[in-house]
């Protein structure tokens, strides 16, 4: 009980950016604008799906999870980082550090599972259009959404539950935010089990996501090649292109982040920035990509905008 109390009140030190005093507020306000932009875009997409009855379809019920997940990712990261830049505090209580790490890992897994669910929905809509309504019923749609969030939660919770068994002997994290590797660096105990579980969880998430998406897009491609209807091909390209762009951006940023930690000549600050990109780039781009490439979302936004202007 005493150890638990000590852990709850334990303060950790984050490794801050090396920022010249004159650039502190410029960086802060730039980051704040990025955060406001990301929040505004994702909230707009959420509200459009809620308020517009034309978007009350299985595709958009599943899509609803994407901006919701993006809000979790960007909000778990940027407010704390921006606050530390201004206040130069760079302190965080251990339980809040674990919570931040948990939410950031939930976000990463959520992106992979949500995009897989959306790819499956597009496969049914394009490859089996006559059976779409009988397959993608409200119950099935709700089950897919529950599976996405439930599987993500179980995998990440199993990873972070292992931290309870580790004693802490260091109090400085070599990062500007908390994640599983940073938390593991605080212990002097053997972390082999944690590393194995972390690698296993990452592999499972990637295999499930990539397999479902590969299956779905191959089936969609076969459908496009076998049909002579240009309208069907155009619809397939428009509906799938946005999801492929989002997935590729997420994977490229993630790969770049991992590689940046493998080269000794890359500065520590650059490694921190690349680590943050995965939680900033996708939340800012996802609603724009869907707003521009999905005609129903674009028309819904324009209709709302016109009503606000002319009423």
Set out the fold topology.
Blueprint: H1 2-8, E1 11-14, H2 24-51, H3 58-63, H4 65-87, E2 91-93, H5 94-127, H6 132-135, H7 138-160, E3 172-173, H8 180-184, H9 192-226, H10 230-260, H11 268-277, H12 281-293, H13 295-310
Parallel strand pairs: 1-3
Antiparallel strand pairs: 1-2
Helix pairs in contact: 2-4, 2-12, 4-5, 4-12, 5-7, 5-9, 5-10, 7-9, 9-10, 10-11, 10-12, 12-13
Q: Would you give an account of this structure?
A:
- The protein has 311 residues and is mostly helical.
- The chain has one domain (2-310): Rhodopsin 7-helix transmembrane proteins (Rhopdopsin 7-helix transmembrane proteins).
- It has 13 helices and three strands, in the order αβαααβαααβαααααα.
- It has helices spanning 2-8, 24-51, 58-63, 65-87, 94-127, 132-135, 138-160, 180-184, 192-226, 230-260, 268-277, 281-293, 295-310; strands at 11-14, 91-93, 172-173.
- It has a three-stranded mixed β-sheet.
């Amino acid at each position: 009980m005493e150890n638990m109390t000590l852990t709850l009140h334990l303060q950790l030190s984050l490794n801050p950016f090396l920022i010249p005093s004159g650039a502190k507020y410029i960086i802060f306000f730039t980051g704040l604008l990025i955060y406001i932009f990301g929040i505004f875009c994702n909230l707009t997409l959420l509200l459009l799906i809620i308020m517009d009855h034309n978007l009350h379809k299985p595709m958009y019920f599943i899509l609803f999870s994407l901006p919701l997940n993006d809000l979790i990712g960007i909000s778990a990261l940027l407010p704390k980082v921006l606050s530390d830049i201004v206040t130069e505090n760079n302190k965080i209580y251990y339980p809040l550090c674990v919570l931040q790490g948990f939410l950031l890992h939930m976000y990463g897994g959520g992106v992979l599972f949500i995009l897989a669910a959306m790819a499956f929905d597009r496969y049914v809509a394009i490859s089996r259009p006559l059976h779409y309504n009988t397959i993608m019923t409200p119950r099935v749609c709700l089950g897919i959404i529950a599976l996405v969030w439930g599987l993500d939660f179980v995998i990440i919770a199993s990873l972070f539950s292992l931290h309870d068994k580790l004693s802490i002997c260091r109090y400085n994290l070599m990062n500007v935010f908390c994640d599983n590797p940073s938390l593991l660096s605080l212990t002097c105990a053997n972390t082999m089990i944690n590393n194995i579980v972390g690698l296993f969880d990452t592999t499972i998430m990637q295999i499930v996501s990539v397999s479902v998406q590969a299956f779905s897009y191959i089936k969609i491609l076969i459908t496009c090649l076998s049909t002579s209807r240009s309208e069907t091909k155009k619809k397939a390209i428009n509906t799938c292109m946005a999801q492929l762009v989002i997935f590729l951006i997420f994977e490229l940023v993630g790969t770049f982040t991992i590689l940046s930690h493998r080269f000794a000549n890359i500065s520590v600050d650059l490694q921190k920035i690349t680590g943050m990109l995965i939680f900033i780039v996708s939340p800012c781009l996802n609603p724009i990509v869907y707003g521009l490439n999905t005609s129903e979302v674009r028309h819904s936004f324009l209709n709302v905008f016109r009503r606000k202007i002319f009423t």
